[in-house]
Amino acid sequence: MKNTIIILTTIITMLINTTALAVVNTSRLTDIETHWAKETITQLIDLGVINGYEDGIFKPENTVQVDEFIKMTVTSLGHTLENGTPYWATTYIDKAKELGLVENGEFINYLRSITRAEMARIIVRALDQEYPDNLDEYKSLITDYTSIEDKYKDYITKAYAKGIITGYEDGSFKGDQNATRAESATMIVRMLDEEKRSVPELKDDEEPQTNDDAEPLYLIAKKTGERQQVETAYPQLIPHIKNGMAILGEGEGYAQFNFYPENDQVYFKLFEKKEDSESPAWVQKPTLISYYFDLEGDATNERYYPYNISFYNIDNAMAREKFKQIVEDIAPEAKDLIMEEFNKKLTDNEYGKHFIKEINGRQFNIQTLEYDRGIFLSIGLRVGE
Fold first, then answer.
1. Among the residues of 77-115, which ranges form H helices?
2. How many angstroms separate the CA atoms of 362 and 346, rounded?
3. This model's pTM is above 0.70
């Protein structure tokens, strides 16, 4: 990032002889006196980055428009511009594109409220900083990371890791939500001043686990109807089984969980509705996703695939989102490869493809199904698992 001190000094120097700010003198703003963001709002108003209104209020809880946030960012980087005509924000938008903060076509409407994800993208582009080698570890702190659009994930992770845009109390980022004027002012100040940032703390790997991933998992055996412990030579499968149950069992759709201890198998199915799961065996089953775990196998055999997902109808939006979450859970290192092949199936009719990829010593068997508009994925263990 441009040296913070230089940026702030430059802005202050430009404003020494400026009298235009009298209209928005912070002493006249009657609605921020007790507001949590008073300090950051005051700082940016004094720097000319953001303005109050002529009636003496700031409206800190109002949302920020795209053009307003672009102006805030451009101005905070030390660029003093005249308003454009007839649209005041033209000069700021053009400057943002020149600086690489915004690309052509990213915003069709600059007059709508900007989202937190879009803010993260602009802010990260404005930075010129190095990021930690363990950047990916910060993803685990964002509880709704898998639901974030792929095009924003890298920007959100970087803004989050730098402590510029923090999450909510429940750990979620809520990238599709809008930010208030007060929140936007805080983001800009954190972008400029590293001492104002709120960098999240990563969990110490040596600390005891606070979740129940290490706890035994009990399921109802399909044949006997008895509650039995899921046993496997590979305990690292258990957290993914639990996550698979949560992913398929939450929200829309009907999930069916089958446990076959005699065959060392856990088998999940996702249907659009409960009655679909009751079709007789001789009827073409309307299964959306089958998720199968092979609990036992030879880990030294590169063809041992403990994770197997069959997605039979990729046109179903609900199932697509769940498939994406499953891939994020068990194979984040190959997510881009898998989703690229998956997305091809949304637009072409080329089926029957079959290939095996190795990523970091881990096997990925990907096949597109000829008999359904779907995709089959088998995933091996990670190296060292």
1. 90-99
2. 26
3. no
Sign of CA dihedral 12, 14, 19, 23: negative
Instruction: Provide φ and ψ at 229, rounded to 5°.
Output: -75, 140
258 φ, ψ (degrees, to nearest 5): -120, 130
Q: How far is 175 from 284, CA to CA, in rounded Å?
A: 40
Q: What residues form DSSP beta bridges with 167?
A: none
Distance CA 319, CA 289 (A): 7
CA 289 to chain centre: 23
For residues 200 and 40, what is the distance between their CA atoms, to the nearest angstrom?
A: 20
pLDDT tens, position by position, 200-251:
887 654 443 444 455 788 888 888 878 888 888 888 889 999 998 888 888 7
Q: Which two tokens stand for residue 15?
A: 């404003």
Please answer whether residues 337 and 365 qualify as being in contact, where contact means their C-beta atoms are separated by less than 8 angstroms.
Answer: no
Tens digit of each residue's pLDDT (9 = 90 or more) over 10-59: 443 333 333 333 334 444 566 677 677 677 778 787 777 777 666 667 78
- Please check whether residue 20 is in contact with residue 51, taking contact to mean a CB–CB distance below 8 angstroms: no
What is the layout of strands, in order, in the sheet containing 307-311? 254-260, 265-271, 289-294, 307-311, 374-379, 362-369, 354-359
Token reading at 346: 């949304």
Q: Which amino acid is at 14?
A: M
d(CA 246, CA 212): 13
Q: Which two tokens stand for residue 221?
A: 């055996």
